[in-house]
Amino acid sequence: MAGNREFFNRRLHSLLGVIPIGVFLIQHLVVNHFATGGEESFNKAAGFMEHLPFRIILETFIIFIPILFHAIYGLYIAFTAKNNASRFGFFRNWMFLLQRVTGVITLIFIVWHVWQTRVQAAFGAEVNFQMMENILSNPFMLWFYIICVVSAIFHFANGLWSFCVSWGITISPRSQLISTYVTMGIFVALSIVGIRAIFAFV
Question: Please, which of 22, 57, 108, 120 could form a disulfide with 18 given CB 3.0 to 4.6 Å?
Fold first, then answer.
């Protein structure tokens, strides 16, 4: 019974990492990338997202609750998993270890980013280009955002590989190898989008 529950929780954890959390990550990166078009371009895109109908309901049930479950169960996996990277050194073992490390980094970043933006907005601050420009004018915060955004993207891309395996999409070694190249390509592409967006505020 406990084994069935853990199997279900792991499958749900994997699924939520792709849908809706992964979809939200991509959407968030795309909106931020509008900053490369200038202040007005970003503010217009951010304003559109801010004024979506039923935004609070959508954020609660499609973003916050899935992230909460994914984070709590992910921490359980991270701190109970047996990492073999130092013993074996195989590529997948390193990916396994990095998945756990970037998961913790991403969780810290999400909490901090929500505090800097959503919580401050609740107190009357405006989430716009100038807010991000002020945050990233600090060199420490600039590097903090770069490291954390790249970590979040890696966690999603590598998690997508694990999702394909655990859900039976990639079963053969060949399909898993192809999936590795595809997901690492996604990691590189989204990292370029994320880093370009960050430097657009500087």
Answer: 22
